[in-house]
């Protein structure tokens, strides 16, 4: 076992799980964020139908991230959650309302607008809170003897508010490009028009964060600025993806905007990872400090290796079953 | 008043998990019922099964959504409110909960999409397969979560180093002594809930003479289930109790209301436990029966609550009465099982207004039994988080203030109250709309073929 560092394997798995969550739930939260701007109620039906069969599976990656952290890096789980107590609470409340809105909205008449609000507010809240988590991670945590000792609102600073809003815009962008891919005609045209402004918002936040982060934390600054390194390729690729979004929107391409947006997210995410690697609970604990016992990591790893490929196969299959454009009138049970 | 984060966290945990438990308790049974009907439909092509299945799938969808969102809350509760506990037990609970996610939740979520939206998008065999996969997911989910929960009651297969639990045997830890009984008892409880809700719903429709054929079939199926399960639950519960007697005798003493160790102890039908004075008031009991049940001897010795020092005793009143509520309901359900059998003899089970009315009234009681059962188990474990090893104060999040805990508690109560009443409201609307809207494949062919160009927009549930 010496040769194989289980903790590193697990760090990769957790990163993968977060990535899957952000990409997949990202677009359906984004659809929720765009909800109030839809031209009419029929378009909203369409938007919701485009994600209704899959949102639950998408959200499951969040649960896996949570329990996976508990299993492989309990220190992360038991410091992040207390530190983000209020933020996590808000995220959960958001997810609750938005999740039930899928079912309730289609069964409501007069109260429909209330579930529209619940769907949007829930999606917004969840996205914002998740963005704030990212910000908090960059900021670092106030710990002592492996326990969080900071205050209830340490996680809420101007910096984390900015990362929160950034992720809201980012998810909305994913949602808009998803709708471009899944709809046609006027609805698609409407979605196309949302892409570029959202992209600009995301880029603006991106630039501000990039300028700001080095001041928030010393080690991050060193990592990026002390020697010019290969890691600069990551933001470069992210920018190329952004350019690709613009081009493919101009050419009215169906799927490319969505794919390019995912690409942009992936490279940004890697950029974030290398800024902090190998720290899991900055500024003090590395992924090895945070790890659980090797026998526990191994026990779960076996299952992951056997089961996750199967999960990916049938997840892909459900996407395939519901492939193609969604149309008005077809849909809910 | 000083706000106690430990107490508030306990209340919050109990509240969110009780809320959550209602929904899986319902969906586990219902998922199998739907899959069963789909199987019959597949085999016989009888459109009645399609009606039944489609209608109950609608109910299922609403309940499942509430189960999912409240479940997501659960998986973060350990970290937010019990971070020391999480850190100490992560080696064990982390993998178990993660296995639940990868084997059960993904399965349920993926195939649920197909079950709800895919009837006309996939071939019938694949659709049937999806229905069974959802049902399988609910089982797997119960398996892992109850392994985790049972381990906290009867921990085994571990050693403690530097205050952290390390697993020495996964088999022993997962199949810990109380797990087989807790799993069977919970699964039977879920199927009972499913059966009673279907029975109550069908009875309600029959009383109004709506879709009589389909509802008679559904009622008949659920009554057969009840006939097997209601008495079965008594047997399983009894074994579960005997197992607890061996591993957590103080919990059993609290359930029975026995303060002092003795032989030939009575079974109390009524008592008013008084924790302060460590005694009961107003006892009414059947002599020696408790000894007989627990030890299978009239004069067997049964340990009392006072075997534990007062600080380590559970709140007896709650445990004692929750247990009686659960068993009382269990006995009532057995009564319905028998009544159903008797009425079936002369074919009147679906025509007797009295029986049907009674069924509509009793439909919700298994939920109460389920929650009471959990209260017995969990409150009976107090003050321990991990039985005999770690208590509430050791497990709570150190940075948690009373104010934060109160804030989130009020937040969850408000949110859940809204969601719960909205859920009930929409379920009632689904009931009200009934099966009449459920066009089966056959009917659709007949009705729609002539006006083909116009079809395609089926009447949605609400407009
Ligand atoms: C015996 C059954 C049982 C019990 C005791 C619990 N659950 Fe549960 N849970 C289920 C049976 C279940 C289920 C039937 O499998 C659900 C209901 C709806 C669903 O999606 O699956 C579910 C849903 C569900 C979800 C959402 C899954 C999804 O998105 O598909 C999560 C995260 C949890 N649960 C977590 C928990 C935790 C942390 C529990 C205890 C502390 C817990 N559950 C108790
Ligand atoms: C699903 C049905 C369940 C219900 C209704 C339920 C109910 C309760 C109740 C009422 C308490 C409070 C006991 C007290 O304060 O003395 C409690 C405590 C607790 N339960 Fe459960 N429980 C359930 C399942 C579980 C499961 C599956 C787990 C673990 C995986 C679990 C873990 C805990 C923990 C950690 C506590 C400690 C917090 C506390 O004691 O308040 N429970 N539960
Ligand atoms: C009919 C007679 C019944 C008996 C003798 C019985 C017995 C028991 C016992 C002894 C426990 C406590 C286990 C422990 O010590 O941890 C328990 C728990 C429980 N009971 Fe029952 N029970 C009965 C009926 C029911 C019914 C009808 C339901 C629900 C529909 C139900 C649901 C539960 C649940 C959910 C639990 C908690 C989980 C567990 O520990 O299994 N029970 N029961």
In short:
Chain A is 76% helix and 3% strand. By secondary structure, chain A is mainly alpha-helical. Chain A has one domain (7-319): Formate dehydrogenase/DMSO reductase fold (Up-down Bundle).
Main attributes?
A: 333 residues; mainly alpha; two-stranded antiparallel sheet; B: 463 residues; 15 helices; 8 strands; binds CIS-heme D hydroxychlorin gamma-spirolactone; binds protoporphyrin IX containing FE
Written overview of the protein:
The complex is a heterodimer of chains A (333) and B (463). Chain A is built from 13 helices and four strands. With 333 residues, chain A is mainly alpha-helical. Chain A has a single domain (7-319), classed as Up-down Bundle (Formate dehydrogenase/DMSO reductase fold). In chain A, helix 1 crosses helix 7 (158-182) and helix 6 (112-139) packs across helix 7 (158-182). The radius of gyration of chain A is 20 Å and the shape is globular. Chain A starts with 5 loop residues before the first helix and ends in a 12-residue tail after the last helix. Chain B is built from 15 helices and eight strands. Chain B has helices at 5-44, 47-81, 83-117, 124-153, 170-174, 179-207, 212-247, 249-256, 289-295, 316-345, 353-362, 365-379, 392-395, 402-433, 441-448; strands spanning 158-161, 164-167, 262-263, 267-274, 279-286, 301-302, 384-386, 390-391. Mean pLDDT of chain B is 90; it is low at 446-463. At the A-B interface, helix 3, helix 4, helix 5, strand 2 and helix 13 of A face helix 2, helix 3, strand 2 and helix 14 of B. The structure holds CIS-heme D hydroxychlorin gamma-spirolactone (HDD) and protoporphyrin IX containing FE (HEM) (2 copies). One protoporphyrin IX containing FE binds at residues 10, 13-14, 17-18, 21, 82, 145, 148-149, 371, 374-375, 378-379, 382, 385, 392 of chain B.
């Amino acid at each position: 076992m010496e040769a194989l560092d289980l903790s590193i394997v697990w760090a990769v798995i957790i990163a993968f799980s977060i990535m899957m969550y952000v990409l997949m739930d990202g677009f359906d939260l984004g659809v929720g964020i765009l909800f109030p701007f839809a031209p009419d109620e029929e378009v909203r039906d369409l938007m919701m139908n485009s994600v209704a069969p899959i949102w639950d599976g998408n959200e499951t990656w969040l649960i896996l991230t949570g329990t996976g952290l508990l299993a492989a890096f309990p220190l992360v789980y038991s410091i992040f959650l207390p530190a983000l107590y209020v933020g996590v609470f808000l995220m959960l409340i958001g997810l609750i309302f938005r999740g039930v809105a899928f079912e309730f909205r289609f069964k409501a008449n007069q109260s429909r607008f209330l579930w529209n609000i619940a769907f949007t507010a829930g999606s917004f809240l969840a996205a914002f809170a998740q963005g704030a988590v990212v910000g908090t991670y960059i900021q670092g945590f106030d710990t002592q003897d492996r326990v969080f000792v900071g205050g209830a609102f340490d996680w809420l600073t101007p910096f984390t508010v900015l990362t929160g809003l950034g992720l809201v815009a980012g998810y909305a962008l994913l949602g808009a490009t998803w709708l471009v891919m899944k709809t046609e005609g006027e609805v698609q045209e409407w979605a196309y028009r949302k892409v570029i402004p959202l992209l600009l918002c995301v880029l603006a936040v991106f630039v501000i964060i990039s300028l700001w982060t080095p001041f928030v934390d010393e080690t991050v600054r060193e990592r990026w600025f002390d020697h010019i390194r290969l890691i600069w390729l990551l933001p470069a690729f992210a920018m190329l993806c952004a350019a690709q979004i613009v081009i493919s929107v101009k050419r009215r391409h169906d799927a490319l905007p969505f794919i390019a947006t995912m690409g942009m997210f992936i490279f940004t995410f890697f950029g974030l990872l290398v800024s902090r690697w190998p720290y899991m609970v900055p500024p003090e604990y590395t992924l090895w400090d945070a790890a659980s016992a090797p026998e526990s990591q191994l026990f779960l790893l076996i299952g992951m290796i056997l089961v996750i490929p199967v999960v990916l196969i049938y997840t892909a299959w459900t996407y395939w079953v519901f492939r193609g454009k969604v149309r008005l009138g077809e849909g809910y049970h | 008043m000083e706000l106690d984060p430990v107490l508030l966290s306990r209340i919050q945990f109990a509240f969110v998990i009780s809320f959550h438990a209602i929904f899986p308790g319902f969906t586990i049974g219902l998922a199998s019922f739907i899959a069963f009907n789909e199987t019959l439909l597949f085999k016989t092509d009888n459109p009645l099964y399609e009606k039944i299945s489609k209608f109950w799938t609608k109910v299922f969808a609403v309940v499942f959504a509430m189960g999912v969102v409240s479940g997501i809350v659960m998986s973060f509760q350990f970290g937010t409110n019990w971070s020391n506990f999480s850190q100490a037990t992560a080696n064990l609970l982390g993998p178990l909960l993660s296995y639940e996610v990868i084997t059960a939740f993904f399965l349920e979520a993926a195939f649920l999409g197909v079950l709800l939206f895919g009837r006309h998008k996939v071939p019938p065999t694949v659709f049937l397969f999806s229905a069974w996969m959802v049902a399988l997911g609910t089982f797997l989910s119960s398996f892992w979560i109850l392994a985790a929960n049972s381990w906290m009651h009867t921990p085994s297969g571990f050693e403690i180093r530097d205050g952290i639990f390390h697993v020495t045997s996964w088999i022993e830890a997962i199949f810990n002594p109380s797990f087989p009984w807790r799993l069977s008892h919970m699964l039977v409880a879920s199927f009972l809930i499913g059966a009673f809700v279907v029975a109550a719903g069908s009875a309600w429709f029959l009383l109004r003479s709506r879709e009589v054929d389909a509802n008679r079939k559904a009622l008949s199926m659920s009554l057969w289930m009840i006939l097997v399960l209601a008495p079965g639950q008594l047997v399983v519960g009894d074994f579960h109790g005997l197992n607890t007697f061996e591993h957590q005798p103080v919990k059993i003493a609290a359930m029975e209301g026995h303060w002092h160790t003795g032989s030939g102890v009575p079974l109390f039908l009524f008592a008013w436990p008084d924790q302060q004075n460590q005694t009961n008031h107003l006892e009414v009991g059947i002599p020696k029966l408790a000894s007989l049940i627990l030890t299978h001897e009239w004069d067997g010795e049964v340990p009392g609550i006072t075997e534990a020092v007062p600080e380590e005793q559970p709140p007896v009143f709650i445990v004692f009465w929750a247990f009686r509520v659960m068993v009382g309901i269990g006995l009532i359900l057995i009564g319905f099982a028998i009544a159903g059998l008797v009425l079936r003899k002369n074919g009147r089970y679906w025509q007797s207004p009295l029986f049907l009315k009674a069924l509509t009234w009793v439909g919700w009681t298994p939920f109460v039994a389920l929650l009471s059962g959990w209260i017995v188990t969990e409150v009976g474990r107090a003050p321990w988080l991990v039985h005999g090893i770690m208590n509430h104060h050791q497990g709570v999040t150190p940075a948690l203030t009373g104010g934060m805990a109160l804030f989130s508690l009020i937040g969850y109560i408000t949110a859940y109250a809204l969601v719960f009443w909205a859920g009930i409201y929409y379920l009632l609307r689904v009931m009200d709309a009934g099966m009449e809207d459920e066009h089966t494949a056959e009917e659709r062919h007949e009705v729609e073929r002539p006006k083909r160009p116009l079809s395609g927009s089926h009447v949605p549930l609400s407009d």
